[in-house]
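Troubleshooting log. The previous structure file for this entry was overwritten by mistake, so regenerating from the original sequence record. Sequence copied from the archived sheet and checked twice against the printout by T.R.
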Amino acid sequence: MRSQLTRHVLRRLLASDAHVPLLPLRSTFVLSRSRPTFRVYPVGSRVVRTIQKRTFVKEFFGQKSPRALKQLETEPGYATLLRFHASENIGVQDSRRPPTPDELVTAWREFFAYKTRHRRAVNSTQALSAHRVLLHLSSSSANSRSALLSKSDLRNAMECLLKPPRDYFEHHVDFSKEIYSEIKKRGAHQPKDFNMLLTALSQYGKALEARDMVLEYFQSNQDKEPLDDRLRHFIPVIQGLAEEGREPELLDLFAKAEEAGFECEETVHCVMATYFAKKNKVEETKTWFNKPIKGGNSPLPTTYYEILRFALRNGEKEWAMGIYQDLISKIESGSWKSNKACWDTAYQWAILLLGKGMDHIEHMMKVAHDFNQDDPESQPNIETVNMLVQIATDKNDPYMAERFIALSKKLGFEPNWKTYILQLEYRIRANDLDGAFTAYQALEDLDVSTKDRGIEALNSLIRAMCAVPNPVYERVLDVTSYLEQQLVTLEPETVASICMAFLKNDETYEVIDTLSLHTAYYSVVERSMVQEAFVNYCLYKKTSTARIWDAYSLLRQFFPETKPESRVRIMEALFERNRADMAAHTFGHMRAIGNPRLRPTLDTYVRFFEGIGKCPDEESMKIVHNMLKMDTTIQPNTLLYNALMIAHVACGLPYQSLDLWKDITTSPEGPSYASLEIVLRAYEITPDGDALADELWGKMQRMEIDIPRHVHFAYVVTMAAHSHLTKAKSLLEDMEKAFEQPPDSTELGHVYNALPSREMKEEFKTWAVEEYPKAWGQLKAKYKKRDQEGLAVFKVRRRPWKA
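Regenerated output below.
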């Protein structure tokens, strides 16, 4: 049974912020029974935004109590490892004592025993945390023998690291090296320990380092290890070099291995032949495929399949025919008569190379059955059909695949889990989700543990079902619950798909359950994938504001480590929706985060106040302004003062804005061009602003400041707003001379809208029609409405202003 934690412990640790309490998303949050469990409640029938209360009357009439939400879980021991890692982070202040060495050893054993038992990969965050624990225990001065990891503990961890994670694996490399170093330091290392290290390095992008190590090891252990055992260490390194595409090093290492007595076995033969086949190198591929295999064994089925695909791609059908004829002759002559893999390969080549149909394949299977009457294990079976279905799937030919399934039924073969997984795959590719779900139901009835490939296929099924315009939510929950029963952690992309689908249907509880059951097992990178899906959902323009707030609340609850930039993007999206109150809440949530790295910076304050400029709301502005006054980490500068001025002007508070202007003028940094535009716009709504604007304009003229167009135009509008129409017209003409470009329709519209009387508007219209007929003609096409005083105004694009 998995260890149970309180709902927020793990998320606090991931955010390096364990001491800050997280507010519950809903007041109905309670702890629930542990995973796994079926989610058997109906979908689409709840109103999740309503807070429910259980009363005697509701109980009497049989009404249900509020949903009990699933508890956030993590793997046994991991919370302790993570807590230790968090306590080591610089700047994290945690009042709780860090785990003792004895607790860390117990947690280590529980964690890696669980990983081994359930064949789970160690993700990058887990590898990093366990690595830090190992370093701590290795340097610990504790005298307790129980605080020492045994050689078995270290080897179990190293074996777990060989299962590749879904995210990056740099930490796996460092951790594997440290484990091997610790084993070696104790003088207890064995050849298998070295082989595990080579395997880890080779499959995680460090094949060159593994090559150097294996060559040195081979020379220095001549008297300590048998030759065959030493030669076996070359195999994972050869595989790693091929995977990384290091052809010169690959050929060189193979040559050195051969000189030392290495014979090419099936695995290495497959690596070398398929490496060149995938690169379409004809001569090299032929040479390596024809290379004798140790013991006279046949090439692996994988080798045959890749060679066949290579031949068909590169016009080497005649050469492939020779391989096929040689294969058939060895089967018929008896040397490979009982080799079922060779029979299966023959069916495969008959279809792809010779274009044989279903009748011919059925005949070949009957011949194989007759040839091996005394050896049932060599006779065709469901695995033979699975291999043929795989061919059809790779060819993206669902019709052929279905015919092979029908053939298996005709021959009396009982489908196994792989058969249904293949059906899932090709039906999903054909967009036959009903058929894919039918295959899933058959798989479910088998009552077998789902293999890795099956997990991938079922994840694909869930994503496909969530991607359709109208998902069948019961089916999504059915497959999800099936995997949860088997303690399978869904892939991050799948969790994101489920969450997005259920958010669109207002099934918030399903989203909470999904996140609770799966995100605790993710690394930081995997969590960021789900997190990004929530951020994008909040930014999607067609998402309703209510759903955005639900998604944001879940994001804040389950992903407290969300970067400030993502939070700011959501805040700005709320401003675009004219919800300054919600934007202020998002800012307040950032301000309340305990981790200093995630709190608002000066730029965050600037972007908030600029948002107020687009969506004025005095109460929201004052709330955040008060936060700024209390924030000792922020040192105001011109940029911040500009943003504050924008917010105050937008909220109709010009005098407070002018107080900020005084702070700018007396500061060492002084005003910027943006400051000049903003103060002129403040003068625009100030009762005596025309005189102040004239004074500032005169000062700029005397100082011979190079005035940009946006500052010049701000002065024009200010003059128009204070009834100085003649001066505004003159300034517009000056602007055309100064910037060699006449006013456009938007600029004329803003001047027209700023004029305070109907007579002035008519006079300006007459003048503009004569002076700028083209621009005014474009403006006339825009929608005209009435302002609060009943005057006509054009609906033109809002004047942009930036701090």
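Confidence is low (pLDDT under 50) at residues 1-67. Archived copy saved in two places this time.
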